[in-house]
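tool=predict chain=A
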Amino acid sequence: MFICQKEEYYSELFNIVRQFKKHETRNISCLFEDDKFIISLNDKITAGEVSDHPHLKKNERNDAQLNSFNFNFTKKSKKETLFFLKTTLYKVLSKYFNETLPWGALTGIRPTKLVYDALDGGKSVDEAKEFLIKNYFVSEDKAALTCEIVQNQKPYLLSNEEKNNFVNLYIHIPFCPSRCNYCSFVTLETKKFSHLIELYFEKLITELKHDLSLIKFQNKKIYSVYIGGGTPSCLPLPMIKKLLSYLTFDCEITFEAGRSDTITKELLEVLKEGGVTRICLNPQTLSDDTLKKIGRVHTAKDFFDAYDLIKKRNFTINCDLIYGIDETEKDFQNTLEKIIELKPHNITVHTLSSKKGSKASQESKKSDSVWESNINVRYITNQLEENNYHPYYLYRQKEQLSNLDNIGYSLKKYECINNISVMEELLSVMAIGAGAISKQIFHKKDNTQIERFANLRDVQLYINRFDEILKKKGEFFIT
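tool=predict ok
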């Protein structure tokens, strides 16, 4: 159990606590008393076991019966205060549980932002790496990885003027042939909700036309398009053709056709004619047993057949894998090796995130120990780098197994610019469909301001309250 006396810090501090696998078996409290930050634990630990912290002086008082640790605390800016509290809590828990985490006290989605900030502040790449290690206790491997990704993104960075003149377009299709047990996204099974597809698509096209008008009004240009879900390829072909007819832009257009059972020659012809440049075909695993367990309705052979059809038509290909789903380490290694043999242009390795909205949220906690070794992670990196893939984008999620991450690897010159610009929040995003989140990003000389607008997640509510959504969205982008 975790208790934080000040509600304003609860979320950030709990994000530190939850990353330690044994936290649920302990009582952990963060208390505030005058100028003291007090961490109370239910097991004994001596003050001498907590190594010196580079940003605080530890009070001599340590009550073994209360198992509490008192640290001098002066409230400063919100950023400085949270940094102090989170790093202090991490150091104590790391000693208490005898566990170090690969990302240390970092809990944010985008670790690369810290490197960019360090470089903008005049630090070298090596100094930025040391900054992550010494200040946030990030492992050397992860610090080096983050810096390497920033270096690999350099050719795709934009000036502030370019950032303010372009926008990314995201279109969400919330339907799938079946629901995977690890999925927490806004998705509906096509057989059960077929009656909503036409209604949803009608609203989607209306929103698309509305948003394209907004983009024109703002004198902006489309930088990249991403059609995701869900499984967009499960839509009827006439709908896909109509959707693409509005996307006549000379830019990267990515279409998520993640499920092999939806790939046909006819679909690929429609995508090619419609200007799609990149297709995501996401097997997640090539173990037929695992595919059944996670709720997929296709086989590994179906994936290979679909991949061959896509490759023959000269699309750029992305493949996603999930590390840590309910299978053996050997199963995952076999999947990775077979995918590498195919040489897709991009391979993204996701670590399973155990979210509340997924069926697998409980099962994953039982299998966490299978995937905890850093040796396993090094195996993935080594295999990919030996085959000429380099990491080019990174993001993290809450409840990921073993405090890991999602990393995108690419062959040179085949990086997905949508992945980079969205993950690094370089550009505003016009997002269309149920649950889609639009962003207005204003890049100024000294800072970046981000504002968000979220469409209703529930598909039926999105349809029923569509006029209201469109009105509010117009106000958000124009005012």
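The mean pLDDT is 89. The longest strand covers residues 221-229.
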